[in-house]
Structure formats: structure tokens, C-alpha cells
UniProtKB/TrEMBL annotation:
Region of interest: Disordered: 1-22
Pfam name, any one: Iml2-TPR_39
Lineage, uppermost ranks: Eukaryota, Metazoa, Ecdysozoa, Arthropoda, Hexapoda
InterPro entries, per the entry: IML2/TPR_39, TPR-like_helical_dom_sf, TPR_rpt
Protein name as catalogued: Tetratricopeptide repeat protein 39B
Comp. bias intervals (Low complexity): 1-13
Length: 605
């Protein structure tokens, strides 16, 4: 078997060729030169894989420090140790969003790419040109060189994702996009190696295949979710996306014993329990997730990640008490990374909102505002919105002042990522303007957030959940006329159509979940009729049209559903949270029309 020492003996001129895979601004230093003489680089691939597998098990058993201690010492010489160390620093950066951790992750990934590059197959100029005209002989790759290609792709993907938050300019968006494109091409080349190479070591092939399955599966699955016009553009620059192929790759990877098996499981759980609920009207495969979690919790009974996903599974089932139990168990299972608690607190906030336990929800909202740096704008607005749900007589005078203070602070923390403002932050800022325009008042702001976060579908799991929200909306509709006619607050008249449309949309959405389609349809049609009178909240109308389309789908009226979805897609633009709705429209249309992006006719949107 080739060793790292053998790999590092390649000429520096050949090494330069692979640096083109990365960004010109990335600086690479040969971190292994000093160690080579002492032989510390001579760690064979089987040993590196075995230690990486131990680190994976330690990590998913919450032994984060032990896993890091195993990976870090050889991070400058062994590519698997370098990838492991980079993943740990990357996760810390994502959890904390602190600049020093982001910088540390960037440096670790640069070092990782450099280490991987030393082990990649070196080609002469003649060989590189020859690839264009003749079939590549993948048997020329050693096991070490094959794994170096895979590890490079993984590190480059993380580096690309980090680029989006390292710099707030449009340039970073372009640079990150190019890195992702290169990464996808590398994964496709790894698939060619897997398919066409004769493997001497079945163990080496097993671990390699699990990485290829995870990478290509995730790319195919996520790209397939994008609207058709974006997919056609991505296809033009070298991407492809097929949901069925992606799912099959990930399922195959999750059933293997390869080192990345658990990452395939994590991706499947993330897709079925989070992505499906945020970006589509459909539910994930909850039974499949249950089966996955039984196995993973048996292997990692105290693992923070799988306890969290178990909580999410119960949340999506509408079992709110069970969801609370599992989320709290995840939260209390470790304290090494307290930032992970924030994920649990986010979920606990919304579980309590669906239970209409505003005081309990407020505790978690407060903690996020004070301790998390992901989006202070969203956290601050969410806390203020939850406080607004409490009746005036339930609020202390100091709390009333706090609501106003929070609303003033919301725009201060607005951020840009890759040169773009976050849509939900822009939405929150607009709502704070409305709050002050209406003399410190908003209609059911927390329920509105529940709707735009796509949590209303959980209401349909148990009638009493939907009924509780419905009663709050009805109560506000009953008082709507009084407020509009109030001479003391003329702003209510200015935004009368906006406020009425919001309440009717929420009422219609509740009634759909309560299986009352006729009443729901009447409410939603009223919202659409208010379009010309709405002053600011134009998003309410296309969202109402999509709700109508979902009623048609429930009734089996496929043609009418397609017409409604196409109407919302083509005839409305420039409204808040437009991209979010377009994702949902896309997934619904793909399902109704029975076509994947590959056979979308030319010119189709």
C-alpha cells in the first residue's frame, strides 16, 4: 500500500497543477516538509481510516474533545486526520458565528486542501491533454490517490460554504460558487474512479464508496429542489440534479459500513425532517426516519445529534410533549459545545408556541437573543412577537417598554451574507416599521411567523392544536372592526386591508388543517380579493393562492391546483419571502406534473 511518505516524494512542479482546483487567493504552505524527515508523515491509509472511524464514533457519542485530540496532532500530515480536524473547526465556526472561529476554520481548511493535494495523483502536461481525447485509465490511481481526490472534494465544499460568511461581498458569492462547481466535478471524477478502477482492498473501496455516495447523493438531492429556471442555469455550467438518484445514493451509503455511513444518515434525516418541511408542502418520510433513528440511537444512545433529530421527528408528528422531552434530553446531553444548545432552544421555542405557552416560549427566545449570534435580527423580532401575543393585562409595564425597545433594535443587527440581505431579516425589519406606524401594535405576529416558517402543517396532526390557533385568530377578527374604526389610531385604517388579509389567511390556513375546505376557500378568496387594497403586505396574496392550490390537491383536483400554482408563480413578484414560496411551488408542480428537471421542455420555467 502506498504511504504518505511515498506520496510526498512527487515533484513540486506536479503539485502546482492541482492548486488550480482551489481559489487563486488561497495560500498553501507545505506543512509537512518539516515532519517528513522524521517520518511522522508515514501513516498508511488503513491506519488513518481506522483512527478516523474511531474519531467519528467518539464525536457522535459527544466525546468531542477526545475526537479532536485524536485528529489534530496529525492534521498537517495525514489527509484523514486533516479532514477530521477541519470538520471540527468548521462546525465550531458554524455554531458560534464568531470571527476568530471562522478564521480558524478557514486556515484549517486551507491546510487540509494542501495536505490532500500532496497525495493526489500527479499528471504531466501530456497526460492532462490526453484526457481530452482518450479514456482515462483509473487503474493508474493508487488507493491513497483515490482517497486524496475524495478528501479534497469534501474539504473544498466546506471551504466554499465558509466563503459565503467570511466575506459579505458579491465577490465571495462568485468565488464560493466556483468552488462548489469544482467540488461537484471532483465528486463526479471520484465516481468514475469508484466505478472503473480495480480495487485491491475491499475495505478501502468500502470507505471510498460511502464518501462518493454521500457527496453525489447530497448534491443531486439538493439541486433537485431548486426551481426549474435555476436548474437549467446550473446544468449549463456543469451541475445536475436528480432526486431519485440522490436518495438512492444516500440510502445505499447509510446501509454500508463505510466511514461516512453516519453522514449519509444525517443527510437523510436532515432532508426528511427539516428541508421537506421548510421548502415544500410535503412531509418527509417519517417512518423511514423512525427506522434510522432506532439504529443510530442504539449505537449512540446519548448522541446530541440523534437525540435532536428524535425530538424533531416527534415535533413533525405533532407529538409536542414527546418533542419537548427529546429536545431537552439533547440539550442536556453535553456541555462541551454549548452553542449546540441554541438549535434545541430554537425548536423548544416553536414547540411551545404551538402549545400556545407563550411564557415558556419567551424563556428560550430570550436566551437566543442574549447568547446566539446566528441572526440577532430574527431572534430579537421573534422575542418581541411572542411578547405581543400576551394580553395587555398579562404584561408588566416594564415588559411593554421592553417590546418597544426590542422592535427598535431589530434593524440594528441586520446582516449581509455573500452580499445579500437575508429575506427573513428584511421581513422582520418591515414588521417593526409597521409596529410603530400602528402605535405599537401588530396582529398576531408570532402566528404569522409560525405560518411563514411553514409550521402550520403540524397543526393538522391534532385537531386541538389547530383549534387553539383558530380561536386566537377569530378573536382578533372580531376586534378588527373596532380597531379600524378607532379615531384614536388612524393608522389602522391605512393598513386595514393588510391586517384583514393576514387574519383571513391565517384563518384559512387553520381551516385547511382542520379539514374544512369550503370555509378555508372562502377565507382565502377574500384575501385574494383584497390585493389592490393591500398597502405593504403583498406577500399575503400569492401565499393565499398557494394555500388554495393545496386545498385543490387535497381534493384531488390536479388541473385546478396546477393553474393556481402557475398563477402564484408567474403573476406575482417583488413581495416578501418570494424565494421561499417559489421553492414550495416548484416541488408541488414537479409532483403534480410528474416530471423531474431532466425532462422539462425547453423554455419551461
Amino acid at each position: 500500500m502506498a504511504t504518505a511518505t511515498a506520496a510526498t516524494s512527487a515533484s513540486s512542479s506536479n503539485q502546482q497543477q492541482h492548486l488550480q482546483t482551489y481559489d487563486d487567493d488561497d495560500e498553501f504552505q507545505d506543512a509537512c516538509d518539516a515532519e517528513t524527515a522524521s517520518g511522522s508523515c508515514a501513516l498508511d491509509l488503513d491506519t488513518a481510516l481506522a483512527e478516523a472511524k474511531i474519531a467519528v464514533d467518539l464525536f457522535f457519542n459527544n466525546k468531542f474533545n477526545e475526537a479532536e485530540a485524536l485528529m489534530k496532532p496529525l492534521a498537517t500530515s495525514s489527509m484523514y486526520h486533516s479532514v477530521g480536524h477541519s470538520v471540527f473547526t468548521y462546525l465550531e465556526a458554524m455554531l458560534t458565528f464568531e470571527q476568530q472561529h471562522i478564521a480558524a476554520a478557514s486556515e484549517a481548511l486551507k491546510q487540509c486542501l494542501n495536505v490532500c493535494n500532496r497525495y493526489r495523483k500527479k499528471s504531466t502536461l501530456t497526460e492532462t491533454i490526453g484526457k481530452t481525447f482518450k479514456k482515462v485509465n483509473y487503474d493508474q490511481y493508487t488507493d491513497l490517490e483515490a482517497h486524496a481526490e475524495l478528501c479534497s472534494a469534501e474539504a473544498l465544499l466546506l471551504k466554499a460554504m465558509l466563503t459565503f460568511i467570511e466575506d459579505e461581498t458579491l465577490t465571495s458569492l462568485i468565488k464560493g460558487g466556483m468552488k462548489i462547481r469544482n467540488c461537484f466535478a471532483m465528486y463526479k471524477e471520484c465516481n468514475n474512479i469508484l466505478t472503473h478502477r480495480q480495487w485491491e482492498s475491499e475495505s478501502s473501496k468500502l470507505h471510498f464508496e460511502s464518501g462518493v455516495r454521500m457527496g453525489l447523493g447530497t448534491f443531486n438531492l439538493m439541486i433537485s429542489l431548486l426551481p426549474a429556471r435555476i436548474i437549467k442555469l446550473l446544468e449549463f455550467i456543469g451541475f445536475s440534479g436528480n432526486k431519485q438518484s440522490g436518495m438512492q445514493d444516500l440510502i445505499t451509503g447509510s446501509q454500508s459500513e463505510g466511514i461516512r455511513q453516519v453522514l449519509c444518515v444525517m443527510t437523510l434525516l436532515g432532508y426528511n425532517l427539516i428541508v421537506c418541511y421548510v421548502l415544500s408542502h410535503k412531509e418527509g418520510d417519517l417512518r423511514f426516519c423512525d427506522e434510522l433513528l432506532v439504529k443510530q440511537l442504539n449505537q449512540y444512545p446519548d448522541g446530541v445529534w440523534f437525540l435532536f433529530f428524535k425530538g424533531r421527528l416527534e415535533f413533525m408528528k405533532g407529538n409536542l410533549d414527546d418533542a419537548l422531552k427529546w429536545y431537552k434530553k439533547s440539550w442536556k446531553s453535553q456541555n462541551v459545545w454549548p452553542q449546540f444548545h441554541h438549535l434545541c432552544f430554537w425548536e423548544l421555542l416553536w414547540v411551545n408556541c404551538l402549545r400556545l405557552n407563550w411564557r415558556e416560549s419567551l424563556l428560550f427566545a430570550t436566551y437566543l437573543v442574549e447568547n446566539s449570534k446566528w441572526s440577532r435580527t430574527i431572534y430579537t423580532y421573534q422575542k418581541a412577537s411572542i411578547m405581543c401575543m400576551l394580553k395587555t393585562e398579562e404584561l408588566h409595564s416594564s415588559e411593554i417598554r421592553t417590546i418597544a425597545t426590542l422592535m427598535k433594535e431589530v434593524p440594528k443587527y441586520k446582516q449581509r451574507i455573500a452580499g445579500k440581505s437575508l429575506p427573513m431579516e428584511k421581513f422582520a425589519c418591515k414588521k417593526t416599521e409597521r409596529f410603530f406606524a400602528q402605535q405599537s401594535f401588530l396582529y398576531v405576529p408570532a402566528l404569522e411567523l409560525m405560518f411563514v416558517w411553514n409550521l402550520f402543517k403540524i397543526l393538522g396532526k391534532h385537531f386541538h392544536l389547530a383549534d387553539g390557533v383558530y380561536r386566537i385568530v377569530e378573536e382578533n377578527l372580531n376586534h378588527y372592526g373596532e380597531r379600524v374604526n378607532s379615531k384614536s389610531n388612524p393608522a389602522f385604517g391605512v393598513y386595514a386591508a393588510d391586517n384583514k388579509a393576514l387574519l383571513l389567511l391565517l384563518k384559512g390556513a387553520c381551516l385547511r388543517q382542520m379539514n374544512s375546505p369550503l370555509q378555508a376557500t372562502r377565507c382565502l378568496e377574500e384575501v385574494i380579493a383584497l390585493y389592490k387594497d393591500i398597502k405593504e403586505d403583498h406577500y399575503l396574496v400569492p401565499y393565499a393562492i398557494v394555500e388554495l392550490a393545496l386545498i385543490y390537491i387535497d381534493q384531488g383536483n390536479k388541473d385546478q391546483a396546477i393553474l393556481a400554482l402557475e398563477d402564484a408563480k408567474k403573476n406575482y413578484s417583488g413581495y416578501s419571502l418570494e424565494s421561499r414560496l417559489h421553492f414550495r411551488i416548484h416541488t408541488a408542480l414537479m409532483e403534480l406534473k410528474g416530471k423531474s428537471y431532466e425532462n422539462i421542455p425547453s423554455g419551461a420555467e
